[in-house]
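PROTEIN DESIGN WORKSHEET
SECTION A - STRUCTURE
LENGTH: 574
C-ALPHA CELLS:
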C-alpha cells in the first residue's frame, strides 16, 4: 500500500555500481541539480479514513538555517498529527515549518518529516511544492517510482499485532562481543538484548561506541530477507529513578523541555527515517518511573522526597505521554510501557492505581491508547517467571501463603500470572484489547544447585514458601546485582496467552549499580542497595541487599555477575 510521488527524484534514477554497494547518479542528475529543491512526498500507509505520509526535502540552493514547505490538497485531506516539522493547515493549504532542531539544510542536504492525516474519497498526492516560496519539483507525470516501502503489513494501521511473531530480533554486536569474550559466553552471545538509550549522548554513541543509527543500520544488515525487531530502551526522564540512586539521570526534575527537544525529538527523527521503515522497532518506555509515582509517594512508608517532587511537577507523566505520542506516530514503532513487576505492583494497593496512572500518561501530551502496543514487566528485575512449588491459593495448617513473610499479602507469586492479570486490568481501564505483554527473562532463571526441587516443609507457611520458592532473594524488594540469580528463559515469541515475547531487555552481565561510590559523568549515583553490607530500608523490609560485591557502575560490564548468571541459568545452558 505504498503510494509515492518522487517527481524529480524519480528521474534521478540511481544504479548500483559494479560492487553492488556504490551508487552512481545517471546524467539526469545534472539537470536535477539546477532545480533549487526537490520534495519527495510518500504516502507510506493508508486505510479507509486516514493515512501516514513522509516528506523529504532536498535543498540544491544555498544552505538554509530555517525552512518552510507549502503545498495544497486537491481533496479534503486534513493533517491530524505530525513530527519533525510544525504543520499548520488553512483550508486546503498546508505549511510545514522546521522544528528548532532541524532548521539547517546544507546545499545538497535533505531533511525528512512526517504526519498523519484524515481523508475521504481519494487521497491524491499533491503535485506542486514550494520551499521558502520557490517552486520545487514539477510533476513529471511518471507517477514516481520505488522508495517509501513500509514494513510489516497486517493491522489496518500497518502494525502487526505481535511484532515478535515471525520475526528475528536484533543482536547488539557490542553486547555480543562482551559476552563472547567471557569463558563459555559463546553459548549465549548470539541472543538478542535491548539497546539502552540512557542519556542524550547515547543517541550519537558514547566514547566511540555505536549510536542509534549505527544500531539501526546494523539491524538492516542482519535483517536479510526476514522481518527484524529492534529493541530499544528509552530511559532519560527528568529526575529519573526517584526511589533509587544507581541510575539517577542526567536531567534534573524540571528539565522536561530538554527531555523533549534533545532526547525524544532526535530519537523520533532517526526512527522516522524512511530508511528504517522496514524494521519493527520495539521501545521500552521509561522503566520504573510511573510505578514509582504510585508506590513511593505521599503518606506511604516507602515514599521518597524525589518521587514526591516528580508526582507534584507531573514531569514523569508528561515525559512518558510525549514519548508515546512522538514515537507512536511513527508507523513501524511499537511502544511498550514499563509496568514494574509482580513484587512491586502485585499488591491490591498498587495494582489498579498503577493501571490508572498508565492510562493518564498514555492520554497526556497528545498521546492516545493507540500509541501503546503493550507493556513490559520485570525489566532488569529478578522475579521468577513461573512458580511451580506453591500457588497463591495454597494454605498450610489453615493459613494462606499470602500471610507468609515472602508473599506478604501479594496476589501473585510469579511474573507470568501477574503479567497476564495486569494485561486484563489495563484493558479494563481503556487500553486496546489487543495489547501484548513482554517479560524480561534476562536474569530470572534461579537455577543451579540452590534451586528447590519441590515444595517446602508444611511446618508453617514460611517453611513451605521459603523452602519451595525458586526466587532465592533475601527479600522481593531487592533489585541490585542479586547473588544467586541465573539467566532465565531464552528470548522467544508468543510463549503464552497475552505474552508477546520473553525478551532480554536488560543485557545480562551489565551491572545494576556500583557496590561503592564511583565518580562518573554518566549521572549515576551510589545506591546502598548495591552494597552487600547494607541492611536495607522500607522498600526491602530492612533486609540485607543481597547484592554481589565489587560491582562497577550501572550499565558497565560485570564479569563475575555474568559468570554466575550462566552458571545458574534456568533452563540450564547446554
Ligand atoms: C543503567 C544504564 C544501562 C542499563 C543496561 C541501567 O541500570 O542505568 O546505564 O544502560 O542499566 O545495562
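SECTION B - SEQUENCE
RESIDUE ASSIGNMENT:
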Amino acid at each position: 500500500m505504498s503510494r509515492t510521488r518522487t517527481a524529480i527524484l524519480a528521474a534521478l534514477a540511481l544504479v548500483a555500481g559494479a560492487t553492488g554497494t556504490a551508487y552512481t547518479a545517471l546524467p539526469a542528475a545534472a539537470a536535477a541539480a539546477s532545480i533549487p529543491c526537490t520534495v519527495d512526498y510518500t504516502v507510506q500507509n493508508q486505510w479507509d479514513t486516514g493515512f501516514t505520509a513522509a516528506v523529504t526535502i532536498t535543498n540544491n540552493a544555498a544552505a538554509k538555517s530555517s525552512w518552510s514547505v507549502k503545498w495544497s490538497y486537491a481533496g479534503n485531506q486534513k493533517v491530524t498529527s505530525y513530527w519533525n516539522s510544525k504543520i499548520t493547515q488553512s483550508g486546503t493549504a498546508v505549511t510545514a515549518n522546521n522544528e528548532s532542531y532541524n532548521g539547517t539544510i546544507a546545499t545538497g542536504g535533505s531533511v525528512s518529516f512526517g504526519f498523519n492525516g484524515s481523508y475521504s474519497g481519494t487521497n491524491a498526492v499533491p503535485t506542486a511544492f514550494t520551499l521558502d516560496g520557490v517552486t520545487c519539483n514539477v510533476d513529471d507525470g511518471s507517477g514516481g517510482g520505488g522508495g517509501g516501502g513500509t514494513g510489516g503489513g497486517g493491522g489496518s494501521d500497518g502494525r502487526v499485532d505481535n511484532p515478535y511473531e515471525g520475526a528475528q530480533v536484533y543482536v547488539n554486536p557490542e553486547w555480543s562481543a562482551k559476552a563472547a569474550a567471557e569463558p563459555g559466553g559463546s553459548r549465549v552471545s548470539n541472543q538478542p538484548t535491548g539497546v539502552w538509550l540512557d542519556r542524550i549522548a547515547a543517541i550519537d554513541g558514547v566514547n566511540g561506541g555505536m549510536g542509534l543509527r549505527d544500531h539501526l543500520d546494523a539491524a538492516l544488515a542482519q535483517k536479510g530477507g526476514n522481518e527484524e525487531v529492534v529493541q530499544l530502551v528509552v530511559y532519560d526522564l527528568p529526575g529519573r529513578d526517584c526511589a533509587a540512586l544507581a541510575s539517577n539521570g542526567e536531567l534534573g526534575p524540571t528539565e522536561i523541555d530538554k527531555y523533549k527537544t534533545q532526547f525524544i525529538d532526535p530519537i523520533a527523527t532517526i526512527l522516522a527515517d524512511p530508511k528504517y521503515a522496514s524494521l519493527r522497532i520495539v521501545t521500552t518506555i521509561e522503566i520504573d518511573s510511573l510505578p514509582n509515582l504510585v508506590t513511593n509517594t505521599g503518606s506511604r512508608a516507602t515514599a521518597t522526597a524525589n518521587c514526591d517532587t516528580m508526582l507534584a511537577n507531573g514531569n514523569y507523566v508528561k515525559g512518558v505521554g510525549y514519548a508515546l505520542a512522538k514515537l507512536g506516530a511513527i508507523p513501524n514503532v511499537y511502544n511498550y510501557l514499563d509496568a514494574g513487576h509482580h513484587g512491586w505492583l502485585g499488591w491490591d494497593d498498587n495494582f489498579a492505581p498503577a493501571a490508572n496512572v498508565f492510562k493518564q500518561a498514555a492520554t497526556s501530551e497528545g498521546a492516545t491508547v493507540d500509541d501503546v502496543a503493550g507493556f513490559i514487566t520485570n525489566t532488569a528485575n529478578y522475579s521468577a517467571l513461573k512458580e511451580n512449588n506453591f500457588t497463591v491459593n495454597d494454605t498450610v495448617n489453615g493459613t494462606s501463603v499470602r500471610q507468609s513473610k515472602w508473599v506478604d499479602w501479594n496476589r501473585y507469586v510469579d511474573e507470568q500470572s501477574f503479567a497476564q492479570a495486569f494485561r486484563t486490568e489495563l484493558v479494563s481501564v481503556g487500553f486496546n484489547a489487543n495489547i501484548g505483554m513482554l517479560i524480561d527473562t534476562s536474569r530470572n532463571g534461579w537455577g543451579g544447585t540452590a534451586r528447590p526441587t519441590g515444595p517446602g516443609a508444611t511446618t508453617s507457611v514460611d517453611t513451605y514458601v521459603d523452602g519451595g520458592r525458586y526466587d532465592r532473594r533475601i527479600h522481593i524488594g531487592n533489585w541490585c546485582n542479586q547473588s544467586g540469580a541465573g539467566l532465565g528463559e531464552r528470548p522467544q515469541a508468543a510463549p503464552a496467552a497475552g505474552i508477546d515475547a520473553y525478551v532480554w531487555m536488560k543485557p545480562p552481565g551489565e551491572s545494576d549499580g556500583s557496590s561503592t561510590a564511583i565518580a562518573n559523568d554518566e549521572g549515576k549515583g551510589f545506591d546502598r542497595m548495591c552494597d552487600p553490607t547494607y541492611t536495607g530500608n522500607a522498600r526491602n523490609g530492612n533486609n540485607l541487599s543481597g547484592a554481589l560485591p565489587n560491582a562497577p557502575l550501572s550499565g558497565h560490564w560485570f564479569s563475575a555477575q555474568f559468570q554466575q548468571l550462566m552458571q545458574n541459568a534456568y533452563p540450564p545452558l547446554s
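SECTION C - NOTES
The mean pLDDT is 89.
Residues 256-271 form the longest helix (16 residues).
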